[in-house]
Amino acid sequence: MRVLSRVAWAWLVQLLLLQQLAGASHVVYDSLELEASAAAAEGVPPSIVNSQLRTGYHFQPPKNWINDPNAPMYYKGWYHLFYQYNPKGAVWGNIVWAHSVSRDLINWVALKPAIEPSIKADKYGCWSGSATMMADGTPVIMYTGVNRPDVNYQVQNVALPRNRSDPLLREWVKPGHNPVIVPEGGINATQFRDPTTAWRGADGHWRLLVGSLAGQSRGVAYVYRSKDFRRWTRASQPLHSAPTGMWECPDFYPVTADGRREGVDTSAVVDDDVSAAARVKYVLKNSLDLRRYDYYTVGTYDRKAERYVPDNPTGDDHHLRYDYGNFYASKTFYDPAKRRRILWGWANESDTAADDVAKGWAGIQAIPRKVWLDPSGKQLLQWPIEEVERLRGKKPVTLKDRVVKPGEHVEVTGIQTAQADVEVSFEVASLEAAERLDPAMAYDAQRLCSARGADARGGVGPFGLWVLASAGLEEKTAVFFRVFRAARGGGGGGKPVVLMCTDPTKSSRNPNLYQPTFAGFVDTDITNGKISLRSLIDRSVVESFGAGGRACILSRVYPSLAIGKNAHVYVFNNGKAEIKVSQLTAWEMKKPLMNGA
After folding, report:
1. How far is CA 559 from CA 88, 542, 547, in A?
2. Mind listing the pLDDT tens digit for each residue in 424-437?
């Protein structure tokens, strides 16, 4: 039965490609032709336009610019992803809502753009938004439109499926009463965008958030209420605000607080369901325009007051982040098919705009992640969706109980590792050699990693993986842990402090690349000496998950030597303490169907 279903899926994919690619926005160009034209670009290194740096299993269209994921949903057996897309080039501009569908979140087929500038309320831009499932199962999209070119005036619009019986939702219509929300009452009209998925209260009213900026520096999530998605009224006060700058792409959703990994539908908990309310917490996420990172807090939603209160009173100063690397404008959705919440996030390029124009594409989406609340209730856990494991090759390679001495590195051989999935469990025999954490860096993981990178010898660590490494190690991207003794007066009960870091400073010989170290502190107990790491390696992206998803880092890299068959993976230890690889398993990853590419 499983074989038949795969055959049926393959035939359906072929049909969709024949029907859609001729008219779709994702025009497929011959890769050799693209490389030939790109190589002529002045000042662009040949390796940048090498097709082997184009990701193999991360989501992207065949060409051009993409950014924010929009309105992900599951509808009538299909997963849908809309996203900001420039059909005319590899830089931002001319934005439309591109649309792709999938049965499994891994193999994707591109359809025609779903939303393009076509009415007065979005004539100058169709920006980000979200989808909501109505009580009768009909999906509704709310999105930001720009209706004045001179002042970037932002309004919120609604779009409905033309034919709700079409599982692919190929056509969307914009009612004549758009815009449905306008920036009144002193709201900054140039900083007013990205409506969230709506949730329904016991009073029958829908609520959603719109991100904004109040004054010069206060990020705000305004609450709007409606019975019919046509007439919306702003609540008397914001759901929440903080002095962090503009809040883009807000997201607000419930998570179970009883240790289960199941997701919760955004509208599942209503005002009068006291027992259900006691079993959930809420997550408020905002993309900070000033910092270009996604921050979130866990807290309580007061339904009567329409207010959100973070559990951590200092949360607005030291936010948690979904990802401590290149990950922005994220959006979650509830997947009713598997009762889980899934997170999408955009990863921009780290090369130059000239490089992007030369290669003809820019931007990817991170691997979809399942998210749930850690049993401690303090943070979210994230893990690649289980479907990605279908791309693993049949014959993994393993290391078991391998001791790695100080200054030593061990190569992982037997598979091609430019496109791979590596899971490893480490054990540290003793933490006695751990360095003392500098109090000045106790809240600045990225600064700490920059000062104490992968090649800086330490006590316990740095230890981890060198990925996309050349044979002579001229190029390498390090993903590693470093353990510190807690700083005096630094809190945390004196337990060891674990730093997770990605160091791409030696990832490429190409010039003009943005190569920052990315890092986060991992809230885990390493007193038993054990910690795990998983890295998804995909040609020009390294997406890593530390300690079971307690810290995640995505980094974009562009090797000039470690490409294709010339890419290697090593386990390394630059600390004074021995480490043991208790188990390492690595799989070569296959390429899925990716929007016709």
Report:
1. 27, 12, 27
2. 999 999 999 999 99
